[in-house]
Amino acid sequence: xxxxxxxxxxxxxxxxxxxxxxxxxxxxxxxxxxxxxxxxxxxxxxxxxxxxxxxxxxxxxxxxxxxxxxxxxxxxxxxxxxxxxxxxxxxxxxxxxxxxxxxxxxxxxxxxxxxxx
Length: 117
Prior knowledge:
This protein has one domain. The protein is elongated, with a radius of gyration of 19 Å. It is mainly α. Helix 1 runs antiparallel to helix 4 (75-116), helix 2 (34-45) runs antiparallel to helix 3 (49-65) and helix 3 (49-65) runs antiparallel to helix 4. It has four helices and no strands.
């Protein structure tokens, strides 16, 4: 269990560092590879939830594109793309395991109560 907790923390720190590095490398130039590199990293780091986040990323880009902001020319749009992946990754790494543990513990309590009766 300690390994899983450590892996979760390392994952979250890695994702935050990826955003910070992308923001530092951000130049606003249309042919910059910063946004593409960040998305590729997040696709790998957030698997399998990144497969769900990928279409949300395009929806997010569409929201910003109405104002002329894209991940290659807007730091906010770049951070929003990052948030699509990381938020679903947080659900995958933190919320789903907590829900599963809660359901298992409730089943064990019910099962123990049935055997005591």
